[in-house]
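Retry 2 of 3 after timeout on previous attempt. Resubmitting structure tokens to design endpoint.
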């Protein structure tokens, strides 16, 4: 499964990046751990400088297996 990339802007923070890339305003802060797992080399960064390339893993919804017809 291909991984997407995100190039940071000056002042980006993990929760804001999660909201942008997962298009989830309400729960972006809950999705931060997916970003951290994929970018361990930046786990101690709080506020990013511009131009840092981050790997964006699929959203949890995209990872979930589809429900069988009888469960829908």
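Retry 2 succeeded. Sequence:
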């Amino acid at each position: 499964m291909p991984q997407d990339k995100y190039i940071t802007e000056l002042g980006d923070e993990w929760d804001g990046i999660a909201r942008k890339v997962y298009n989830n305003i309400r729960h972006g802060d809950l999705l931060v751990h997916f970003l951290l797992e994929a970018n361990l080399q930046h786990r101690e960064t709080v506020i990013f400088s511009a131009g840092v390339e981050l790997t964006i893993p699929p959203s949890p919804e995209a990872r979930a297996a589809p429900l069988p017809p009888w469960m829908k």
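Attempt log closed. The chain has a mean pLDDT of 82.
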